[in-house]
Each structure stands twice: as structure tokens, then as C-alpha cells.
Amino acid sequence: MSAVKAMTEFIANEELYERFLAGSVLEARDFLWIGTADLKDLHVRRGRSYVPFLRVLSELVKKGVEVRLLHAKEPGPRFRAHFDDFPALFEGDRFDRRLCPRVHFKCIVIDGLEAYIGSANMTGAGAGVRSGNRRNFEAGVATRDPGLIDPMMELFDRVFRGAACESCRMRDVCPDPIA
Questions:
Q1: DSSP symbol at 39
Q2: Is 42 helix (H, G, I), strand (E, B) or coil?
Q3: Complete DSSP assignment for 75-137
Q4: pLDDT tens per residue, range 35-86
Q5: How many other CB atoms are found less than 10 A from the CB of residue 18?
Q6: Residue 1 within any structural domain of the chain
Q7: First-to-final CA distance of the chain
Q8: Which domain holds residue 52?
Q9: Would you tell me which of 15, 27, 128, 154 could form a disulfide with 124, CB atoms 3.0–4.6 Å apart?
Q10: Taken in order 83, 87, 91, 93, is the CA torsion positive or negative?
Q11: Average pLDDT in the 113-133 region?
Q12: Which residue in 16, 35, 33, 11 sits closest to 105, CA to CA?
């Protein structure tokens, strides 16, 4: 393969972690949107140790990056415990987290220029640094194609703004309707 990355390519398993969570996410300049069904206390490698992914998000927010996190259910207790360790995520206006029980898509969109769209949830077994013998088998695409990124962003934004809340037939089980 040439030195220039293909516009759209298949990635699987640990490639998501290496390419996005340990790579492109760190280079976000304007915004980072993450959609996932399941959200847990994901950790990422930093040098010789591991840190909560929440720390990465907090550092991005401190640099002025807008971070949107959209997920289907409440995160686990360890995520909630670590969340309070990063005040940049709840004291400013650059981080916003929304819950919609109908969200099942998984995506990472960086500055509207690069995206992952696939099967991996934001968990250690899905998108994290777990060993190959313990992680899920995941697949998706990494793309710089506006023909894929733009519709993904439109779907994400529509759900994030609560555009479907009023007519949603799951409203009675939604813990916190967006609109």
C-alpha cells in the first residue's frame, strides 16, 4: 500500500484502537463525535501505563475541541466514578453527552474529515487495548469519504438534537428524553 491512506478501507479488531483511539482521535482540532450503544470505562495506552479514555477526552476539551458523546444506556459504575475526576468534561461547554436507548450505531467522527463506522462499542473488549485473546471480533470502515461521513454526521446530529424524540415509541422507557 502506498504512503497515502486509502479514502475508505476495511479495518478490524485492534486496528480501530491503533488507528483511531491511539491515533486520529488525538489529532482532533475542532470536534470529535462518538456514537456507541455500550459505554464502559475504556482505558488507552499512554507510554508505559494506561489511562481512562475520559482523560483523553478531557485533554481535547481543554484544547478547545468540541466533544459529543451519544450512547444507548447509562455507562457502568467505573465510568461514572472516573468521570468526576475530569472537571473539564462537566464544567465547560465543550463536552456534551446524550443518552438515547435506540442508538445502536457505532462511529467516531473527527473534524468531519475522518471517520470510523462499524461494529465496535466504546468498551475495552470492543474498541480498547485488550489483548487479541480477550477482545471482541469487530469490523468496520475507516474513511475520509464525505459521501459516507456526511450522512453519518447527519444521522448522529439528528439523534443528538432529539429530532426523533417526540414521535419515538420508546419514550416510555427512555430515562432522559433529549427533547
A1: B
A2: coil
A3: PPHHHHHHHTT-THHHHSSSEEEEE-TT---EEEEETTTEEEEES--BSTTTTS---TTTSPP
A4: 999 999 899 988 899 999 999 999 999 999 999 999 998 898 889 899 999 9
A5: 13
A6: no
A7: 46
A8: 8-173
A9: 128
A10: negative
A11: 88
A12: 35
As given in the structure block, the three cell numbers for residue 178 are: 433529549
The pLDDT value recorded for residue 177 is 81
- What tens digit of pLDDT does each residue of 77-87 get? 889 899 999 99
Q: How many residues does the chain have?
A: 179
How many other CB atoms are found less than 10 A from the CB of residue 123?
Answer: 21
What cell does 127 get? 474498541
Identity at 158, one-letter amino acid code:
R
- And the C-alpha cell for 8? 475508505
CATH of the domain at 76: 3.30.870.10
